[in-house]
Automatic annotation (TrEMBL), chain B:
Pfam families: HisG
Domain ATP phosphoribosyltransferase catalytic, first and last residues per copy: 55-228
Alphabetized InterPro entries for the sequence: ATP_PRibTrfase_cat, ATP_PRibTrfase_HisG
The species this protein was found in: Phaeobacter italicus
Pathway connected to this protein: Amino-acid biosynthesis; L-histidine biosynthesis; L-histidine from 5-phospho-alpha-D-ribose 1-diphosphate: step 1/9
EC number of the protein: 2.4.2.17
Role of this protein: Catalyzes the condensation of ATP and 5-phosphoribose 1-diphosphate to form N'-(5'-phosphoribosyl)-ATP (PR-ATP). Has a crucial role in the pathway because the rate of histidine biosynthesis seems to be controlled primarily by regulation of HisG enzymatic activity.
PANTHER family xref list: ATP PHOSPHORIBOSYLTRANSFERASE, ATP PHOSPHORIBOSYLTRANSFERASE ATP-PRTASE
Domain of life: Bacteria
The protein's name: ATP phosphoribosyltransferase
Gene that encodes it: hisG
One cellular-component annotation, GO: cytoplasm
Lineage: Bacteria, Pseudomonadati, Pseudomonadota, Alphaproteobacteria, Rhodobacterales
Amino acid sequence: MSDRMNALALAARLRMNFEAAGARVVEPPYLQPAETLLDLYGEDIRARAYVTTDALRGEQMLRPDFTVPVVQMHMSHGAEPARYTYAGEVFRRQEHDEDRANEYLQVGYEVFDRKDPASADAEVFALIALQLRDMPVRAATGDIGILMAAVQGLNTTDLRKAALMRHIWRPRRFRALLDRFAGRAPLADSRRKLLSTEGVLTGQVPAIGKRRPAEIDARVDALRADAAEPPIAEHEILALEALMAVRETIPYASEQLRDIAVDLPSINPALDRLDARTAAMKARGIDIETLDFEASYGRTSMEYYDGFVFGFYADARPDLPVIASGGRYDALTRQLGQGAEIPAVGGVLRPDLMLRLEGAEQ
Amino acid sequence: MTLKLGVPSKGRLMEKTFEWFAKRGITLSRTGSDREYAGAVEGVDGVDLVLLSAGEVPRELAAGRIHLGVTGTDLVQEKLPLWEQQVEEVAPLGFGHADLILAVPQLWVDVDTLDDLDAVAAAFRRKHGHRLRIATKYHRLVREYLMDAGVADYQLVDSQGATEGTVKNETAEMVADITSTGETLRANHLKLLSDGPVLRSQATLWRSRTAKCSADEKKVLGALLDRLHNG
């Protein structure tokens, strides 16, 4: 059989296993309205997804993943609680590395359940780990929710917190903002000059464009007000940095994070959720003593995860991308739900990579 | 078989290219009528002149249909994602200087850096219900530049000409365009961001890394490159 037929056969088996675990099979369409994906990911998605058009429907994208269409389907007419599984191709435009696949199979499992998030997290992780049993893979886990709780709890203005929250998934810009709010980064010359002025600054040049003078005046006022605010306290910044650097097995990570919570007490509820999840994973037979936890894991993937995150890697094959990955995306259901929301968690496997790993083993 | 040299088929870019080669003892000329894109090469044997639009030169180089070609750095980097693997820079030609820049209305007294732009994009989206629009024809270069800088909540809208006018017409909030002097920007009440240009471009002679070369052609190429470097 060809590689592709083997991958399709494996995908069918994996999906059947998820079905046996209680999931309903869904088949989202290949073409997705581009607008939804653009709204979620911004312009960056154009570098990752194939865009096509027709005169009636406008821009369409070849699905870059299943999560968004599955969430949309569930939010429009799903019953609760729900478990879904799917298998099929996703398409990723490649502009830098010809060796990376631009079309590959994904098999996924998604849980929409309000009752017990910790247990749902553990269920998804354990089912995926089960599908990968006996394969030479290592799991990495993280929890974006802890960092988000830390930012929300900082003793600073809501504007600064909102700016940091917006860039949780862009670590470099997050860093730059943090340095600025901590008073570590020097002000740009233009900003210093702007802050030395008083009164209304628009009115000197023609008012062109859709961004009106009132919006500009309002931002100048906001910048002046922000300049009068004290920097974020040193002990909070240090604790936040320590948090982002935590990289340990789960038991030690949990201990370190509780120490950090002395300076950032706002993370305690998120840490309680981490402990509840760890207990649920243990109850499902996961060896949590050796399971890795990285507090910054999942921040660079341009995804929508806002809680538990995980990935399975083939350490002996650094040339292979992540074999399986997933996480919790409560906020995504809120964004796509038009007023409705539901806690949700899911993950995907890549059968093509699993076969390559198996082939290398024999 | 002959070595194929692609150069822009009209305008100042063609004239300047002809001058640059002439200074090195190689005469390029258009033959036949003004409308016919045929050319001749004197001063070196075994080279064919191919007249092309500057925008097509990158594609022809990457496909290996021409061995050498003259076009701007901007066009090569916009059109060829793996340009370093597909072409090699032989020589910058010292003309056709232009920067790909980001420009916002002069009215935006609160915006000078990419930091400002990012913050304003977020506020703009909240207020107007759509992302801040940047008019450009250099989609890939601008997107990669902004992605690298971590700017979010913008969208690129295609503009193949009169880009500076889009702000006044309210079909875009700002522009990313090629400028040599900045006069058009000022005339349209726009100003540059201070972080520097997205890309500095000039007319450049490129060698295709993919074009097949027979032994004879290699000899011709070697002799030609020697002439150009020593000229």
